[in-house]
Design goal:
Layout: E1 28-33, H1 37-52, E2 56-58, E3 66-71, H2 76-92, E4 96-100, H3 106-112, E5 118-119, H4 125-135, E6 159-163, E7 165-166, H5 177-181, E8 185-186, H6 189-201, E9 206-210, H7 229-238, E10 243-246, H8 259-263, E11 269-274, H9 282-288, H10 294-307, E12 312-319, H11 326-339, E13 343-348, H12 366-389, E14 395-403, E15 408-412, E16 423-425, E17 437-445, E18 450-454
Parallel strand pairs: 1-2, 1-3, 3-4, 4-5, 6-9, 9-10, 10-11, 11-12, 12-13, 16-18
Antiparallel strand pairs: 7-8, 14-15, 14-17, 15-16, 17-18
Helix pairs in contact: 11-12
């Protein structure tokens, strides 16, 4: 059984689960989805539209008439992974359509793989469909192919990502996502709620709210009903009866208004915030073009915990940013000691084509970046282990993700799928199934994971 490693990458796509039903003669499309959960949602929307037009979805290259590769362009290493995936699809299938963030650089893709059939950018759904129609014309059967009752999902049926906006208004020097996906464009509340209601009606037990900047949701509306529409949206989502987990939340002052929702389990909004702090030293944050307010951030964390002591805080950080000194890095370690975040991911800085950070002076050597990453992860691992050890002897509700012969893999309210820890039940789990909510007694802790027994056993 896999135990979560200390080098979890938040930009890796969750494991996809493709539908396999197909009628004779039905045109079939394969999908390779790379990148973050936001890209996964784009893949789901593309597949939902294709299914509605009479296409089947193939889980392998051999069974597909063409393959759509949804790419990531966040880091140079992610771009390389995307090019590798495109190359593999070309070798295994030969008919490949490229979309996603890396699609914003079509010459970069066609320079490496001139045989691709088409290249489209991020969330260009109509262009992707046009490319599929050209490569594999639809052959709908009006007696069989109907609009699906629910969307095609690439995650287990008991949880789903819910994207509430596109784009970002920040101008972080290390990031090119705003150049790829544009400025903030929030979806209407009614559209978000309609999608969420359908998901819950279809059996989804957990809604994972995602965007580039979740706490900015609705602030792009000229006539918004409140200063911070995300608070009302979170409350409305929490009323649907599923867990609601908020990702990619910037620590704006109005985030405090959401903490009371998290403090009361009846509201359905989990006591969990995923906040991309990135660093703690004000000079590094300034070079990143991020708010340089690490001291006030500690005050915010203290304020959140005073209202909701059980809140789980996860974040990601960058080490080895250009000109980062040993003293600045030590400030980050000291800040981490004080903040005691529950879940932490870490990147070693990489240049990204088009990012302004590339031109900054004094780039940190790779060996120093690796050393700082090791020290950072050692510190965060110790904090995680201590926090989890404190949970031994407690009772908590968990959501079952997977049931195997030797154990059931579950998640607590403190754990998002793929990026956080797990709770394992290795006795009396035979009757469980994915999507079950059960209460467990926690009896063992590791560095990142817990073990427990079903309450009453």
């Amino acid at each position: 059984m896999d135990i979560n490693p200390p080098n979890l990458r938040p930009d890796l796509a969750p494991k996809v689960q493709l539908p396999r039903d197909k009628r004779p003669g039905q045109p079939t499309i394969g999908m390779v989805s790379l990148g973050c959960p936001k890209a996964l949602v784009d893949s789901e929307r593309i597949l939902t539209r294709l299914r509605a037009e009479g296409y089947a979805i193939s889980a392998d290259y051999a069974g597909a008439d063409a393959v759509v590769v949804n790419t990531c362009g966040f880091l140079d290493s992610a771009k390389a992974e995307s090019l590798d995936a495109i190359g593999e699809a070309l070798r295994e299938n030969g008919r490949v359509i490229v979309t996603g963030c890396l699609g914003a650089e079509p010459d970069y893709i066609t320079g490496a793989h001139p045989r691709v059939l088409a290249v489209t950018g991020p969330h260009q759904y109509e262009q992707v469909l046009d490319a599929v129609h050209t490569a594999v014309p639809p052959r709908p059967d009006p007696f069989v192919d109907l609009l699906p009752a629910q969307a095609v999902t690439l995650t287990p049926r008991h949880y789903s990502y819910l994207k509430i906006s596109e784009g970002c208004n920040h101008a972080c020097k290390f990031c090119v996502i705003p150049d790829m996906r544009g400025r903030l464009n929030s979806r209407p509340v009614a559209a978000v709620m309609r999608e969420a209601e359908k998901l819950v009606q279809a059996g989804v037990r957990e809604l994972l709210v995602i965007s580039q900047d979740t706490s900015a949701y609705g602030t792009d509306w000229k006539d918004r009903p409140t200063k911070a529409p995300i608070t009302d949206l979170a409350r409305d989502l929490g009323s649907l009866g599923a867990w609601v987990r908020l990702h990619y939340v910037y620590p704006y002052p109005h985030v405090r208004d959401m903490i009371p929702l998290m403090a009361d389990p009846a509201n359905g909004v989990l006591p969990y915030l995923d906040i991309p702090f990135q660093h703690a030293h004000p000079d590094v944050l300034k070079r990143m073009a991020r708010p340089a307010a690490s001291a006030r951030t500690l005050d915010e964390i203290a304020a959140w915990r005073s209202v909701c002591p059980d809140i789980t805080l996860r974040s990601t950080f960058i080490v080895g940013y250009p000109s980062e000194t040993e003293a600045e890095f030590q400030t980050l370690l000291d800040w981490l000691d004080e903040a005691k975040l529950d879940r932490v991911g870490c990147f070693q800085y990489e240049n990204v084509a088009g990012a302004r950070a590339n031109a900054l002076p004094n780039h940190v050597p790779d060996e120093i970046k690796q050393d700082r990453w090791n020290r950072f992860m050692e510190k965060s691992q110790a904090i995680s282990a201590a926090k989890l050890e404190a949970k031994v002897g407690t009772r908590m509700q968990v959501l079952v993700d997977l049931v195997e012969d030797d154990a059931a893999t579950c998640r607590t309210m403190a754990d998002a799928p793929e990026i956080d820890g797990n709770l394992f039940i290795d006795e009396g789990h035979e009757g469980l199934k994915p999507g079950d909510l059960v209460t467990v007694n926690v009896d063992e802790a590791g560095d990142y994971d817990l073990w427990g027994q079903i309450s009453g056993q």
